[in-house]
Amino acid sequence: MSDPVLSIRHLTKRFGGLTAVRDVSWDIFPGEVVALLGDNGAGKSTLIKCVAGVHQPSEGEIFFGGQRVQFARPIDSRSAGIETIYQDLALANNLDVPANIFLGREVKRRYFGGLIKTLDERTMRAESQTALDALEIHFPTLTQPIDSLSGGMRQAVAIARAVYWKARLMIMDEPTNNLGVPEQQKVLDLIRKLRDQGVPVILITHTLPDVFAVSDRLMVMHRGRKVTEKQTKNTTTEELVHYMVGALDDTREASTAEAAA
Amino acid sequence: MTVPDTVASPGGELAKLSPGKRFLVMLSDLWAWLFLVAMILFFVVSVPIVGSATFVTVRNSQNILVAIVPVVLLGLGQTFVIISAGIDLSVGWVMSLASVLSALAIRDSFNAGAPVWLAVILGFFAGTLGGALVGAINGVIIAKLKVPAFIVTLGSSFIVRGMALLMSENTTVIGLPDIRAYGNESVFYYVRGGDQAGFYFLHAPPLATNMLRQLDRILPWPVVVTAVVVGIVMFILHRTQFGRHTYAIGGNLEAARRAGIPVDRRIIAIYALSACTAGVAGFLSTLQYGAGSAVIGDALLLSSIAAVIIGGVSLFGGAGTIMGTVIGSLIIAVLTTGLVMLSVPAFWQFIVVGVVVIVAVLIDQSRDLLIGRNESGSET
Hints:
The complex is a heterodimer. Chain A is α/β, with parallel strands linked by helices. Chain A contains 9 helices and 12 strands. Chain A has a 6-stranded mixed beta sheet, with helices on both faces. The two termini of chain A are 32 Å apart. Chain B has 14 helices and 5 strands. Chain B has helices spanning 19-29, 31-50, 58-83, 91-111, 116-144, 149-168, 180-184, 221-239, 241-251, 253-258, 263-289, 300-310, 322-341, 346-371, and strands at residues 172-173, 186-191, 198-201, 215-220, 292-293. In chain B, the strands form 2 sheets. Chain B has a 3-stranded antiparallel beta sheet with strand order 3-2-4. A two-stranded antiparallel ribbon of chain B has the order 1-5. In chain B, helix 4 (91-111) runs parallel beside helix 6 (149-168). Chain B is mainly alpha-helical. Chain B has one domain: ABC transporter involved in vitamin B12 uptake, BtuC (Orthogonal Bundle). Chain B is globular, with a radius of gyration of 23 Å. At the A-B interface, helix 2, strand 8, helix 5 and helix 6 of A face helix 9 and helix 10 of B.
């Protein structure tokens, strides 16, 4: 197997006396979709926020592309190539599709030796169209504020933005939440396309059917610890539920086995 | 107000609306223009009926343009601020301070031996840069110290007012050289009758007193300056990255931050720009009256906000245009001028402007309902 894109080593995150994430190690490889599962408060979000630069780990290390990284702010992790799509999508709903894809990284035309710079709308529109075409996303028009688009289509804009800016790892937080069934299918299709383009995806979700539909591997957290890591095809919904509520725990078995030995 | 929709929401693109609805949306997009035209038509018909005057005359139109100069200038900066989901309550009193500052600069530099034209230029920079400094301080407190814009600009407007009164030593700065030519001259003059009838460029011909009523000023300099400022801010808002970021900050602050936009710096610049256009207004008023006044902008804050709102800028941020603000200012000015010519008592002007503001917002809201904008995504 090739080298992992993301490698988390013994990551612990404490908030005062509360340990939200305890000694988690985890690898993500190129071109795979990995689901991150767990009940509310299991530590999924905290773990991901450590990777995204929102939080800084209390202990442990994160390697990205083989390099040790320490992200002080979200923008640091983004510029390294980790794109996190949160539920609120981080889009400006009053702007159109190209404006969102290029938000903060607008293409400019320079006049008078760079004294005056204007937005190069034409280039941004053309590039956006190319990015959307590559993902087979079709909009009737690109030049309307995206608050007139459905949730799934906005999700697609966020994904297209990540792909256009050559994200090397995509983290998606409950991407199918609040979407209708056809829209959910579209988003899952997009996740498969990302994988086909070699971009690994971490999928944080409660929706077990989604896990079985798109993920290659999965990891389950319970009370801040990683309780299991499996190939998706080797498990069942029932088994996953047992892991999520803490009835099954691979580490506990290992430690009892150690104690016995 | 997130409504979890279990079926695929149909989007809401304009194309999918029925033709009737599409027409209504178009109408609501253009309503400010239509309202302005309808209002002018109304006054064209009604003014001659009530009195002997005609509404659409060169003199009248130029008077209206001169009258809206301060409202437009205050509204321009306010447009940026409100699009970024902020509010600037200090613009009226910043204008007063700028009037005092530019009057002091003109008087003192002239007394120190500078020629009048240089004194005027120094006055311009004193007014605009002094204003911009106040705005930048507002912006720093709002962006860095996270104090709500409403509070910061409310507080600073009192401070600015105190400073303006203090510096003007009794509200008016007098003793300036004769600069009214700069403020009151026009690009063109037109004499309607008599021996000297015709167009004149830059300077009016010497006229007998009884002929002054035959003289029309066309494009007074304050109007020209304002038009230039309108052009500049239109370019900034609609064509540059700064403008795009202004919309993004108002649309979704968190998204703007995550996208790597230097939000704090942008907010500081937005408030500096707002106070700077107010500074231009203060400078122009000094030119027009030949004196600095620490109370000149007192009544203008709310008019400028009203113009911005009538022009379709959303108080929630993220939407609006410069042209809308200009139209909004025109609507207020045409309305008040027309009502005066109809001999309607002054208090009615306030009542009518108030009704127009509320109706404008209602039209904007019903437009959003028509299109079926979903706002769930913008809330975090």
